[in-house]
Amino acid sequence: MTDNKKQPLLYMEEYRTKQDPQDYGLADEVFNMDVFKSKLQVVIVRNDEEHGLEFDLIGVYPAIANAFRRLMLSEVPSMAIEKVYIYNNTSIIQDEVLAHRMGLLPLRADPRLFAYRTEESTEQGTEQDTLEYELKVKCTRRKDANKDQSNFDDIYKNHKVYSGHLKWLPKGKQAQIYSENSVNCIHEDILIAQLRPGHELDLRLIAVKGIGKDHAKFSPVATAYYRLLPQINLTRDVTGKDAYLLQSCFSPGVIGIDENECAYVKDARYDSCSRNVYRYPHLADAVTMARVRDHYIFNVESVGALKPEVIFLEAVRVLKKKCRSFIDEIESE
């Protein structure tokens, strides 16, 4: 980690942010590749299925950090249902609403194994750029249902349509390459519609490769955001009841209290920087709050088709490709 004295800080006062007097910000900084490479750090903090990926990106300009965030949201591709052919829909859901719901179903298919559709592509697509599904569900009344029963599961059959009802229809040699589990919906318990006897759905679905810039359904992340690393320092001792009051002003786990009932900074990383401490004049001078200007805490949660770390690496590849294309355009001039 970088020494605290050298960290560029943004101080958080009650009603404004103030720049460190020794930090001149980005205005006078001239970009130098060697300096950039010496400062750049990527630190993996946490990576699990429950919380997703959390990593620190240190020593970069805000534009670079924001570029990675935007690329993960809108330019890393995924597979999603694009066309819905409705042969029969007697449910109470309108056709266009039903088609929209189908498009938002997350698919497990790996987009790296498929090609983008081109203007020359046929409507039905090929095994290289298209996945095809069907949804056929008809609601009926159970013959053994009693009149006194009130539970719909006991009265009706197929009265709830879930994403697990989708059936994959392999095209060409897809059945030899992919398994049904590798291309179906990530979650099988997503409720699509509720039916009653006489209601029926008969749909054919076409999934293609796309990016979130075209439609949000193609975005591979549930959330992708960053925040600056908080830094909290106590300027004097805070003890007794004031220590517990100070602790309540910050997010849980940020301020600790020792055996002498003296407050100390336990872990400033996960503080929300709410500035609640400024509500108490007798505590306002006991704390200095700041954020490190070039230390970004990234949180990435995947929809499920790609792992969060893969999504970030794909965003790096997209940015690299854009830079190469830009350089080629300049050189061609």
TrEMBL record:
A GO molecular function term, named singly, is: DNA-directed RNA polymerase activity
Q: Which PANTHER family match?
A: DNA-DIRECTED RNA POLYMERASE, DNA-DIRECTED RNA POLYMERASES I AND III SUBUNIT RPAC1
Q: Keyword annotations for this protein?
A: DNA-directed RNA polymerase, Nucleus, Transcription
* Family of this protein: Belongs to the archaeal Rpo3/eukaryotic RPB3 RNA polymerase subunit family.
Compartments where found: Nucleus
Output the Gene3D superfamilies linked to this UniProt entry. Answer: DNA-directed RNA polymerase, insert domain, RNA polymerase, RBP11-like subunit
The family database entries (SMART domains) matched by this protein are listed as:
RPOLD (SM00662)
Domain DNA-directed RNA polymerase RpoA/D/Rpb3-type, chain residue ranges per copy: 52-329
Q: Write the protein's name.
A: DNA-directed RNA polymerases I and III subunit RPAC1
Look up the domain of life of the source: Eukaryota
Q: Which organism is it from?
A: Drosophila hydei (Fruit fly)
Name any GO cellular component annotation: RNA polymerase III complex
Query: GO biological process annotations for this chain's record?
Result: DNA-templated transcription
